[in-house]
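S2.1 Query sequence (FAD/NAD(P)-binding domain-containing protein)
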Amino acid sequence: MSTNEKPTVLIVGAGLGGLMLGALLEKSGVPYTIFERAATVKPLGAGMAVGPTLFPVFEQLGIYDEFLSIGKYLSFVKGYEGTKTSLKFTNENDYSQITEFGGYGMYIVGRPVLYDLILRQVPAHKILFGKRVLNISEEDDKVKVYTSDNGVHEGNIIVGADGAYSAVRQRLYEKLRTEGKLPKSDQEDLPFSCTCLVGQTKVLDPEVYPIVKEPHCQFLITMGDEKPFTWSLMSTAQNTLCWTVICHLTKTTSKAAMEQRFRNNDNAEWGAYPAQVMCDETKGFLVPVGNEKMTLGDIYDLTPKEIISKVMLEEKVFDTWHSGRVVLLGDACHKLNPAGGHGAVTALHDAIALANLFYAMPTKTSADMTRIFEDYKSERYPAVMESFHHSQRFSRIADRGFVGALFKFLITHMPAWLWRIALAKMARFKPQAGFLPAAEVKGSVVPVVSPSEQRARDVFEKYQQRQREQQQSAATV
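Output structure tokens follow.
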């Protein structure tokens, strides 16, 4: 594709998925702009596990070595069971074996730190902050994004990367509903069965808190034996503790239902439902740190209040991922329970697939647009559904009764051979950018073939061949 044939991509949402797409398009030469409703980036979120599924593309982007300096190597995840007065060690899972299968180790990094690393791969002038999207439109071969500051921005493709309550998805679905083309399942509210507190402590003194000076990440998960809660701590390379507290609700609900419940209780603060309430409810829970007399309340006291946030953990894979020149990415089209640890990774993999397909587009026609979006969903949907079911299985360990007890038993007594199979399965998806020099394929597990990567690689190699021929021709003149 010549320079003037490349589509102009309007990315709505500067989360991890939107930023990764921007970083890749920057390398591919495809023009783009990112719109973010927030005026500034807030350092919210807890820890993330990053490993073989992302490191090949990190190598291609030239950020792998820098990532190693900000991540902390993960060898074991230790499990505990907590009661009102005590903690009991139950099991540990060895993640160091994943290097054998995937060729890279597993690392824990604070989400804000990873966000900053990817943010720096996108030129500042290509991210427009404080741009809340009010509407989108499509006409012939053009699309437009209308923002709250009366701005109108024109391109060829709109990518909705703006989260679980995506404005792009809402506008797209409104149009499809009016036309009678929106599946019934996509008209239902986003369900959720968990709420969650997340945060990260200030930098801790290693002499006072020895857990942070351990050479490997200390990843500690506690399941409440008498309480519908699961809480975890992760030490980071920055000498902080990332933490997460999940409250497992007794039944699946929705944001709309929860809002109505609080309205009925004369609670007008649902829009920013105070995290402090959940902090107060859980502050007495013990954590397996030091002499085991520390509590979550101690962890909260070590965390700046402005970076403690409470979120709903929605679970849904939408059926409609695209229409016309509009396509969705990450949480906007599939929201996974974080129990499986796959949510951010699936969004980043979406970005890789879309970047490959945008690079390899033969033309900017509507017909080609429809084909690449169909190919995108065809490639990503099976992997997303696998992650969705994986996350749901892990979330069942908090169920009360026989099912929860069974899942908890399987997790805490998993035989070594079955754990190795699970790790090998995790290492299968390692997509790369086909328009950049390929990273070496490492590990004993052969990666799943990525059709979008192959398509971009074919175009890239033909371009490279033409460049060589032109250079040889010039040399002989």
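Residues 191-310 form one domain. Confidence is low (pLDDT under 50) at residues 260-273.
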